[in-house]
Amino acid sequence: MEDLEKKIIEKLKTIIDPEVGLSLYDLGLIYSIDISDGNVHIKMTLTAVGCPLQQSFISQVQHAISSLEGVKNVEVELVFDPPWNPSMMSEEAKKKFGIE
Questions:
Q1: Contact by Cβ (8 Å): 10, 3
Q2: Which domain, by its residues, includes 79?
Q3: What is the tens place of the pLDDT at every residue in 20-67?
Q4: What is the CATH number of the domain that holds 39?
Q5: Residues 73-91: pLDDT tens digits?
Q6: Is 44 part of a structural domain of the chain?
Q7: Please, where are the H alpha helices in 1-100?
């Protein structure tokens, strides 16, 4: 499982938010990755509730992960609780934006 989770994270790091130039993963938009018998459940959020790229991001996540060997099904759950905030970003992302 651990190996598949690492591969999923690598795929998530390739999905870039074009407005900020960082991956959904580094922005801290991925809340959880649950894997069970080849079924992957991703819980994610967006930086804003009305994000116009909502469907695009969900489709990109589903497509990227479903291409991995061993993945049978991908479900993406969009949540807004807890609300996203900049403290959820990776250290790399925080440095890019000058957040300590």
A1: no
A2: 2-85
A3: 899 999 999 999 999 999 999 999 999 888 888 899 999 999 999 999
A4: 3.30.300.130
A5: 999 999 999 999 999 999 9
A6: yes
A7: 2-12, 54-66, 91-96
